[in-house]
Amino acid sequence: MKSVRAAAFVASVLLSGCGGASPQPARPQDTVLQRESEAGNLAFTLQRPSEAAAQYEQALEQAEARDDAGAIGDYGYDLAVAELAANRPKDALASARMTRIELKRRGVAPFPALILVEATALYRIGDKPQADSLAAEVELGNDPSAAAGAAFLRGLIADESGDQAGLDAALAKLAHPANSEESADAFELAARRDLRNGQFTLAGSEAARAADLRRTDLDYRGMARALAVEGEAAAEAGDTTEAADLYIRAAQSAAAQGDASSARPWLRQALALANTPTLRQLARQTLAELDTGEDGPAQR
Fold first, then answer.
1. pTM assigned to the model
2. Are 78 and 40 in contact (CB under 8 A)?
3. Measuring CA to CA, which of 90, 164, 181, 237 is 20 to 30 A from 200?
4. How much is the pLDDT for 27?
5. What are phi and psi of 13, to 5 degrees?
6. Half-sphere exposure of 109 (CA within 13 A, CB side)
7. Which pLDDT score, from 0 to 100, does residue 34 have?
8. Cα dihedral sign for 85, 86, 90, 95?
9. Distance CA 48, CA 122 (A)
10. Which residues contact 178 (CB under 8 A, 6 or more apart)?
11. What does the domain layout of the chain look like in residue ranges?
12. CB neighbour class for 181 (10 Å; exposed up to 12, middle 13-18, buried from 19)
């Protein structure tokens, strides 16, 4: 998922008097809001999304106590992002929708990144038509970064729905990526397109580029998904050993993040493709370890 939006803090301002008069006292800060938001940012940076969500929830409550629309938007968004990272898309959907409602009550339009989080949560719980509709709304907005993220989400939905034209349209909107995240998105969509067109070697190379970029950006969920796309390309190209290994690597990464629902099908693919005792044993062992844990939703 995208990085957490920077929190909005109240700055201390010293007001100077005229003609040598003593300066006025500094405006008071909301130390509770600042403490909770900083704790949430730190937890998220340390890849502890559940802890971050708890802190952002406290910050959001304080923002509501202040009746501060800007802070409500910031911390409601941060809370939903953290809940997505913690494999809690239903909670993220509820948080995003609640934040949107609270902003509208105060006469503030929901910002594109918040709508994109809502769309992503809908996608993860399986409501692809509604996710696509909201993402289309974000694409038309005035936030280029959110629009690019929406294009990628729509590309994923199009690919999974067998919509070649939709996949091509999404890829065209990422033709000029502004950063490494958008470059990774473009490479992954290109890999999915080329898989459909039978260009398996090219697709594998593009998926590998996407995985490398996501690893550098610390987007491990996206990296695992790109590894699985690379595995699919290897399988289609006839290199079943390489494909099984890639699926296992993708599954191991997903399992380490608590995303068992993605890990399991990838491991089953690995078992179907593995032609060495070592790979078969590794896939079985990882599956057995997943059986001792809790299922988590598939992640974008």
1. 0.85
2. yes
3. 181
4. 63
5. -125, 125
6. 6
7. 86
8. negative
9. 23
10. 144, 145, 148
11. 30-110
12. buried
